[in-house]
Amino acid sequence: MLENENSNFDVVIEARGRINLIGEHIDYNGGYVLPAAIDKKITLKFKKSTNSYCTIYSKTFNSSFKIDLNNLHRSTTQWHNYILGVVYHINKISPEIVQAFDCFIESELPVGSGISSSAALECGLAKGLNELFEIGLTDHQVITISRDAEHIFVGTQCGIMDQFSVVKGKKEHVLLLNCETLAYELIKVNFSPYKLLLLNTNVTHNLSSSEYNVRRNECEKALKVIQQGHRWLKNLTEISLKDLKEFKKVLPNKIYKRALFVSKENRRVLKAVKYLKNKELQKFGAYLYQSHQGLKNKYEVSCKELDFLVDFTRELPYVLGARMMGGGFGGCTLNVVHKDHIEDFILNSTKAYIDKFNIELIPINVTIDDGVRRKIEG
Length: 378
Ligand code: GLA
Prior knowledge:
The protein has about 375 residues and is α+β, with helices and mostly antiparallel strands. The chain has helices spanning about 80-95, 115-130, 140-155, 160-170, 205-230, 240-245, 255-275, 280-300, 305-315, 340-355, and strands spanning about 10-20, 30-35, 35-50, 55-60, 65, 100-105, 175-180, 185-190, 195-205, 320-325, 330-340, 360-365, 375.
């Protein structure tokens, strides 16, 4: 029985979620982002099967489904698409190498919370099948297979940040990733005496997936118009604020606001990195607030629950910075909080949040950890 997580498995994979310190919604605009893998994970256990089909069981959804490897197509059940998409895209690269297998999945990453449960699931599956069938996929292939699964099977035109950080993340380091070239720098970070704390709003508004593709489209529109005057420009993040101003009257106001956010957010990442390297954490924190303001007012991907939680921290001297994290419209805020005040902060923000929205707030303490790994049992 696959439901028995203790049966013998051939390969066990731990796939971590990710945080993003700063650089939101600019991965698909060829910008810089600053993510890291975290200690919260999805565990995937694999074994080869003698059946003619694969069986996938999710402990989180307490549900299973079967895959016919000769007939891979999209499902109406969204979580199946992450799995089907990965198998489909591995098949495209290495036809028929994936044979029948069983997979048991258990997740501690809350779905829709902006910590990339999707990328962890996709990359964990790709990595597990790579090990189980000795396919020989490179990290880069695991990343792009997972991203393509999300584009084509799940239907979100996501960037590369989540899959990249889930695979390349390293304990105690953040990744400064150039999303155009995929060149990256691992930067050792030490926030002490501060800690990273996520506050999960416990809401995911319907808009989260539809508006994501809309934003991407708006950025493409802006780029097309700007390229008419600046042919050399490849990505929206490359335009200087000065050059962008020329387009204030040309672009529709909404599109101009999107472009302005993208250009500013990209610059914020590079400045924030400088402060992080110099351990000027106050200044680093101020950039988190600026990023949130841009996401709220210019990019319009925040929501009242996220804004409330960020505003709640503004007058607290022991919080250096806070902002919404990930795609938006719900999910988590990222907070940099002094270690001596974490408990107070959780208590007070939870109370304020429940008083305001009558929704339970879920605090998640995170530490930066290694990305997807095969677990050697023993
Ligand atoms: C989601 C996407 C990422 C990225 C973020 C926003 O997590 O999967 O590619 O665009 O939103 O920064």
